[in-house]
Amino acid sequence: MKLKAVEKSPSAGAPESVPRTAAEAGAPADSHEETPTTTPSLTQDPRAVPVWVRSAGLTMLAVIGAIFILQYAQAMIIPVVLGVLINYALDPFVTRLTRLHVPRPVAAGLVLITLMASTGLLLYSLRPQVSAIVQQLPDAARRLRRIVEDGRPATPSAIEQVQKAATELEKAATPSPGPLPRNGVQRVQVETPPININQYVMYGSLSLVAAAGQAVLILFLAFFLLASGDLYRRKLVKIAGPTLSEKKVTLEILREIDEQIEAFLTVQLFTSAVVAIATWLAFSALGVQQAAVWGVMAGIFNSIPYFGPVLVSGSTAIIAFLQFGTIEMALLVSAVAMAITSVEGFFLTPMLMSRAARMNAVAVFVGLLFFGWLWNVWGMLLAVPMLMVLKTVCDHVEDLQSVGELLGE
Hints:
This protein is mainly α. Among the domains are: 69-141 and 213-229, no CATH class; 259-356, no CATH class; 357-409, no CATH class. Helices cover 71% and strands 0% of the residues. It has 13 helices and no strands.
């Protein structure tokens, strides 16, 4: 039904009065008035979904989508994150060279060349020890097999009984082969070995080639970031918003991220170097072979909170047991490695990390589990700086301050 506007009579000087009740319109007195009905709003409809439920559902879908994107595109995202971290670590050195009137692209190239030369020199100095470890691998494998065979009980263990039962069940579930061919050809069944070492070596070689290619891409990305300077910071401030307050908030977030990431990387490099040198000296005193290589490995894995010291202690215990053949020496070497990483983790790092953002242990542990599931070892290495960036952003955005509170101490 269309609604029409009430028109004025052209002959009358005053507008006609519209009757308000049935009595004024001449209708019978006993007639019932019809009250206008209004369409119920969405909030009054019992079948309507509350707004907070819909927003929570959309947020969950967005988070799940972001997780799938991070996992699917990790081959691209991880090099970008590593390039950004290298930029943060080397930017102070490039800035000092620019103060000496060195062009920024030239300064970035000089710093990266110095970094690559130092890394190559370190690897070349460790080359004899790495070669000795590779040559000792067959002997260590034979020794480990002999230890396992000597420690095997005479009677079958419970695990062996379960394995035998599983094998019998698998044979029962496998359909029996058909009859032999009539021409007398012998049926041949190919059995694959349980562990194909050559296949693992091939996959490892391909992984090393892929890692070398990604390292080149990361260095190029770091060079472009170092050469550009604060270009992207200025661009982010420019596109943050039209108001001055939004630009100030963006600038404050970028400034805090710069300070915290630089402080974290500086402390991490220093503590890893301390752990590597201390482990090398301690293992040399205990008579562990190739102590320098294990010291470097301890310094690298020390950058993984919580899990790093456990991996170092467990691997050094195996190495010491294979070398010395006694449980006492394995426990001693493992205890020394654990003591070095514990002193660094409980005393040195908290003292030096006062400038960086402090997060509670539960948030860091859950973040390590999440990023480790997402990106494996790289996720565990990159979890802490990414959590620091997330916490800084959440602290300055009003709608996300609850997340920053959960991450903080």
